[in-house]
Amino acid sequence: MNDKPISRYPVPRVEDLPQDIRDRILAVQEKSGFVPNVFLALAHRPDEFRAFFAYHDALMEKEGGLTKAEREMIVVVSSAANECHYCVVAHGAILRVRAKNPLIADQIAINYRKADVTSRQRIMLDFAMKVALRSQDISDADFETLRAAGFTDEDIWDIGAIAAFFGLSNRMANVVNMRPNDEFYLLGRLPRS
Amino acid sequence: MNDKPISRYPVPRVEDLPQDIRDRILAVQEKSGFVPNVFLALAHRPDEFRAFFAYHDALMEKEGGLTKAEREMIVVVSSAANECHYCVVAHGAILRVRAKNPLIADQIAINYRKADVTSRQRIMLDFAMKVALRSQDISDADFETLRAAGFTDEDIWDIGAIAAFFGLSNRMANVVNMRPNDEFYLLGRLPRS
Amino acid sequence: MNDKPISRYPVPRVEDLPQDIRDRILAVQEKSGFVPNVFLALAHRPDEFRAFFAYHDALMEKEGGLTKAEREMIVVVSSAANECHYCVVAHGAILRVRAKNPLIADQIAINYRKADVTSRQRIMLDFAMKVALRSQDISDADFETLRAAGFTDEDIWDIGAIAAFFGLSNRMANVVNMRPNDEFYLLGRLPRS
Amino acid sequence: MNDKPISRYPVPRVEDLPQDIRDRILAVQEKSGFVPNVFLALAHRPDEFRAFFAYHDALMEKEGGLTKAEREMIVVVSSAANECHYCVVAHGAILRVRAKNPLIADQIAINYRKADVTSRQRIMLDFAMKVALRSQDISDADFETLRAAGFTDEDIWDIGAIAAFFGLSNRMANVVNMRPNDEFYLLGRLPRS
Amino acid sequence: MNDKPISRYPVPRVEDLPQDIRDRILAVQEKSGFVPNVFLALAHRPDEFRAFFAYHDALMEKEGGLTKAEREMIVVVSSAANECHYCVVAHGAILRVRAKNPLIADQIAINYRKADVTSRQRIMLDFAMKVALRSQDISDADFETLRAAGFTDEDIWDIGAIAAFFGLSNRMANVVNMRPNDEFYLLGRLPRS
Amino acid sequence: MNDKPISRYPVPRVEDLPQDIRDRILAVQEKSGFVPNVFLALAHRPDEFRAFFAYHDALMEKEGGLTKAEREMIVVVSSAANECHYCVVAHGAILRVRAKNPLIADQIAINYRKADVTSRQRIMLDFAMKVALRSQDISDADFETLRAAGFTDEDIWDIGAIAAFFGLSNRMANVVNMRPNDEFYLLGRLPRS
After folding, report:
1. Minimal Cα distance from A114: which residue of F?
2. Partner-chain contact A85 F107, CB within 8 Å
3. Confidence check on the interface: ipTM exceeds 0.90, yes or no
4. Which of A188, C187, D151, E16 has its CA 20 to 30 A from that of C128?
5. Are E and D close enough to touch, i.e. 3+ CB pairs under 8 angstroms?
6. Distance CA F128, CA F122 (A)
7. DSSP letter, residue F8
8. What angle do CA D133, D137, D138 make, to 5 degrees?
9. Under an 8 A CB cutoff, do D111 and F139 touch?
10. Nearest Cβ partner of F106 from A84, A114, A185?
């Protein structure tokens, strides 16, 4: 299955890419053992690649009130709502790894209301879904619900911004027909030996 | 009306911002005569601000097969679909200016199927709406329709990426409850003297 | 742009119309300075024209608990929900004039939840939207909400009837592809000198 | 069941009504053997009553390319789409009588795609449903489909206007919670002796 | 009208059917005076026929907290939601007979919120509609609402299972294009002499 | 996680069940190595249990034009549409095993349009989704499309009946809040040694 195209668009060879992009790709390859296809597919447009990953890192790598697993929960629930093949598979894997839970990603992708999450996380995911699907209806009442569950206003910005950023990411993946690496499907499903 | 809050979040004073952000804001103020509120509202998070505008410029300022007015048409139609108060008002103004047409922005925001656009632009807007609302359904057939209307694959990426980026932008504006500057409402409606 | 057709159907010449319709049209022309296209497009069917404007006047011109600006708010929000090009542009203009507010019409058309309206008006617009989009769900609870906001039962009939009447009007405009006069776009946007 | 209220609003006594309205009501009573509740419920607002029935008659009583049974088909399909209790029951009865077919009204109300109608009538009903539910999408292609099925442009106006008018009527009935007369349920179901 | 096909699929002759199916059909014919078409249409697949009616009887014929009329209310409301021509007509008839109420079936099929049901039955029908249309959203809160209205957990299973079973039945009827017997339309509408 | 309830309803002990149900459960346990929770959850109602599995076997175990993997594809796509946690996880596992493909179930659950299926299977899944979501719209044109792809009318019944049966199954699982066994998540993901 590895010969299936990973994008409708030409995929550049790593060695032909600008140095900074090449460095980023080699770093992720060293860390993960493979290059996630999103890096190759988006490298078709270097300026957009740089902005995309700068935005991604600003939301996903920074410190803050949400754990990294919780941020990935937001990614998975939003991406499932947008039926994004790449993002559900790839970030589902990252979520399993970060949460050290082999079941949670499938649960959230299928029906997050039935997932093994805390009630605080459930409220977080409800808001992420509202951002993804009906952001025009967001009101003060949503902020009050989130604050009552212990989220700060900065946490709420994080939830909203992650759901919004993957609104972009899901749409780009759907436009270019991005295919996830086969490696992602099994990642985080087996106990670490 | 100018004392209405422009964001649910604290809005930094320009003089307190990092130099690069301050420079960007002063430049836009010099060019436009006022500071569009999106610059102030997003400056609450400098790293996200930088990524946001880098992405914006990569899509909206570069050369390419779409005119700048056509890019703004895509912004307006997507933002209307997401009922984004800020983006429809602000980019509606920019569209009127770029297209030198005082009617086009309202037409596209209300019902783009009735707008005074070419049949090629209509196909462009149909695709932008699909990206905004049902990106999971995008298929080869959409690309064939767009190519038959004269769009290159790079143009199609542009249409998709602009609609996707404003999917992010609209959601952020809805989360923070961003308010457009009063100046935008009238911009581009009067004949230049 | 003035040579664009204003209807899919033949538009009668004013001088060929029955006397009562001609009188009505000349009166509105004298008052407004131009003949709004709805008068010309609907004059294709004189009996329906008469019933349409009799209904319109019974709702929009009579005394009652709603201000004339509030009635136009209901028209604009319903017409935006139905994506009616003619009604949003034409009644948006009338709303700006009646409310003496150059921003309110665009705000309500884009996302009425973000508009500069009172909380009482917000409840009025919520009900108008329910009439426009899900009238089968209307229940006693809606009446209680409206009464609690200070609306009498006669006011509620007015809100419902205006939203219902423009449900008809929007559909007719969409069927005949009615085009608003260019004059409407700018009306009420400039300070009266 | 006859003591159930027929409207949320006060229902005037016939003898208290203006003469023209009283005459209309007595005429329908003489013809039908009972007073359909819509006449009583809408008589609460005499001016709106007059405009409503003038509009109704202009569409439903005039000559034209659609048979009276076909016009009632349009009413039933639109009213079912809007889940209007009064209009489906009352106009279902009229349809059975006019079509001399005891099955057709239920078929159209439940799923018009399965009803015993001609292919020409099916196209008529498809358009009526589009007017009722997505009038913003109406385009030249709809007119071409209808013309190809033998409808004139005046017939198309009739279809559109009937669906639009009952869009108003359904919403008013839902707002005032209009209850159909028990007599309607059985009307037209039995063979005339 | 009796010569219209009752299914897209071949309809077996009763005498060619396996003995148990033939017996069932003859029994229903003896009781009802005619063979409801669902028996003939589904007999095309004897194993599925047997499972279907075993399931049906397990839910509809057993003792329990819901009256037989209430079970038919659930069938009618679910079938109307799925626009199932066969089930609304056939079970509408059974509902009229079981409830001894000639109006109730049409009321529930058109807009169950306006039907002459008790508030307990209204809550039952709200849940049936949620099972039919948004079962993924069912939560503990729904169970609490139903319990507060006096339903036991076994009653709730019954409501859910009936709505779920007719979710299957409606879909099969729509797939095979099942046509109800003409006899059903009038059944239960006339006073028993 | 194994102590989480598998149903909102009491789960009988296997030894307390009627002999035929106990036999069925022990047989599946012997074959699979564990008892899928659907057997335990539905055993709360023995008659419904028997009908459910008789129906299931009539569709899923019989010979026919669809492979067993294809039938599971239909189950997964319908269950994903209904957001049924149990069915997507359990039947996703069965699909991976039957198709000997560790990726296919996730692909179909997330966005079947992007899955690695043949064009014939894509048409099969399109129809299954129509049965699941809009069965009222099924028409002769759907049958023609399926026949043109090589499906017999009996195959089409199979596709429709499987999607309809899991319409029931998904709703029951959502009503009782059925939880899949942890074993399913990993099943079929690893190469057989």
Report:
1. F85
2. yes
3. yes
4. C187
5. yes
6. 10
7. S
8. 95
9. no
10. A185
